[in-house]
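Box 3.1 — From sequence to structure: Putative monolaris
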Amino acid sequence: MFRMPFPFLVCLIGKMAVVSLGVADSTNQVSEFCQDPYSGGSYKERCAGPYEREKRYIGYKNKCKQIFWDPCQENFRTYRTLAECLGYCAKESVCVKTPLEHGLNTQENKYHYYFDIQEGTCYSRLGTFQRSQKGENHFRNKTLCEEACSPVKI
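Predicted structure (token representation):
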């Protein structure tokens, strides 16, 4: 009588369960955020050592959303900085464009606003808002700048 070794049997049953359940490798999953493939490694690799929950960004509706990232729970691509997220997930956004520096009337002592991608905030600059510059990193007021560019907060 042939006796199958116990470890072999356990391994075989485990592989059959994975195949029958259709469990996919997490590295091939596609995120609903930015539609980019997750490349963070398998659960075992991500959760083998100590980690800290940290603020990260995910692409969300052509903007970036700030989240607390837990590598053992999340399986979508995250970005450490807002600039990195916007550069990847919102390439066409006015928020990633270089702010206007000239061509505005600075004699009127009025201000317009622009988004600083490195700081993740809106700043004012001397010079009037010009409608002809619509579609640029150039806003009439701070509220419009923040609505367009500031990350969605957690």
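Summary of the box: The CA atoms of residues 53 and 63 lie 22 Å apart.
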